[in-house]
Amino acid sequence: MRQRSLLILTTAITAGALTLSACGSRGQNDSGDKNKKTTVVIGVDAPLTGSLSALGQGIKNSVDLAAKVANKQNEVPGVTFKIKSYDDQAVPSSGKQNATSMVDEDAILGTVGPLNSGVAQSMQGVFAKADLAEVSPANTNPALSQGDAWASGKKSRPFKTYFRTATTDIIQGRFAAQYYYKDAKKRKVFVIDDKQTYGAGLAKIFAQEFKRLGGTVVGTDHLTVKETDFSGIAGKVRSSGADSVYFGGQYPEGGLLSDQIKQAGAQVPVMGGDGIYDPAFIKASGTNNDGDLATSVGYPVEDLPSAKTFVKNYAGQKYPDPYGAYGGYSYDAAWAIIQAVKAVVADNDGKLPDDARAKITEALNKVSFDGVTGKVSFDQYGDTTNKQLTVYQVKNGAWKDVKSETFKD
């Protein structure tokens, strides 16, 4: 192998990307000095600007924290981790461009991300052709890991390079429907989605489960992302006699939708998935939306014994933005990459091999550790084995957790 190598590991996240880039061949220290370390850069591709930047910044910071902790602990002997961030603004074409850029750098060995399921669809094929693994902390669309025919029971993993630390909408949508029907005692729901991959898929799964339980979907409608006037939909909700609303989408539109539904005279709760679980949902509404609900993957990070160190360390770094809904999952996604690198290095006499991309993908299938969000490991589809979820409710202008459980089919 040639001397003078500099590795850069870049991680992609929905808006997210981890990048390993190298000058020279992989796995060698400069001038043969055994005291020198290989630099592995974890890149983050997330929506760092735009309407979803509140989530993207938390993702980036959490990956940065994982790299710093790994370095402090000398987690991988001979390797120093750094990060490099990429902004996709939650736009699929930007995500694909970022993925292509990472693949073009021969020494990029792993990626984290992205945030949005729609962005992930544009990136998966690019990564797969290059044997470049990605671990998303936030994607929930089932088709990404189980194929387009998952709903018919014909599950097939499309890309062996794709993994995620967040559970799927198969779980989240059903969990939300069961809470609405069994706990909140709702029987007539109006279902709305934003026509995007994440929102439409989640709303469909929710509606199917709600009807299976005995509830009625009294109406459906769709809105367009970045629009602000939803008065027409709000009027339909009011006249439908619905006792509740379910929205598949993100917090910028969700907050305004909740606001306008209540202004139209329908004093009913609006529920959504993890896409609306953010303080920005509450800020987007000019009307009191106490009682609105959201589900999110995992348990509240602040309540997990396994997350206490993460919360403390994050605060200690004085990042300007909170870790948000996906901070713990981003940290665990980056740590999974770090553990895969560790395993590959250990199996190759302390160096990264020439086929490090393929080897790291293989190692991810076997990763298992106690992470910030609980036990981190992946099933045969690359999905997380952790199926913990939480329902949150707006109380006195803030999200409060009201129910957490491990979902069982």
List key phrases describing it.
single chain, 409 residues, alpha/beta, 7-stranded mixed beta sheet, 3-stranded parallel beta sheet, 16 strands, 21% strand, elongated
Descriptive account of the structure:
There is one protein chain. The protein has 409 residues and is an alpha/beta fold. The protein is 37% helix and 21% strand. It contains 12 helices and 16 strands. It has helices spanning 53-73, 92-104, 117-129, 143-146, 169-183, 197-213, 231-240, 251-263, 279-283, 308-317, 327-346, 356-364, and strands at residues 9-13, 16-20, 38-46, 79-87, 110-112, 133-136, 162-164, 188-193, 216-222, 244-248, 270-272, 293-297, 369-371, 374-376, 388-395, 398-406. A 7-stranded mixed beta sheet has the order 9-8-10-11-12-15-16, sandwiched between helices. A 3-stranded parallel beta sheet has the order 5-6-7. Helix 1 (53-73) runs parallel beside helix 11 and helix 7 crosses helix 8 (251-263). The radius of gyration is 21 Å and the shape is elongated. The protein starts with 8 loop residues before the first strand and ends with a strand. 57% of the residues are buried. Residues 1-32 have low confidence and may be disordered.
